[in-house]
Design goal:
Layout: H1 2-19, E1 36-37, E2 54-55, H2 68-78, E3 82-83
Parallel strand pairs: 2-3
Antiparallel strand pairs: 1-3
Length: about 80
């Protein structure tokens, strides 16, 4: 009896899934807002323009302005491009 109910349930699910066309759409690109800071001192020779940038990502509770102090400190101390 239990096997019969499983088969009925499975066949109903199979019929429903085959009768409905799948609506698959391509993902749409999203424009991202960011700020970038690059510290350059012409007198200094330790500017690292070849290094990968530091990228700060924030979650849903913050915004890019809340990272402003950290953004500047990292840019000055590492002499690398920092994006937030």
């Amino acid at each position: 009896m239990q096997l019969l109910s499983i088969l009925v349930c499975f066949s109903t699910f199979l019929q429903a899934s085959l009768s409905l066309p799948l609506l698959v759409s391509k993902p749409k690109p999203v424009d991202l807002e960011f700020s970038c800071m690059e510290v350059f001192d012409p007198k200094s020779k330790d500017f690292k323009h070849d290094d990968a940038p530091v990228i700060l990502l924030h979650g849903l509770t913050g915004n890019k302005e809340s990272w402003h102090g950290v953004f500047e400190i990292i840019a000055w101390s590492t002499k690398r491009k920092v994006s937030r």
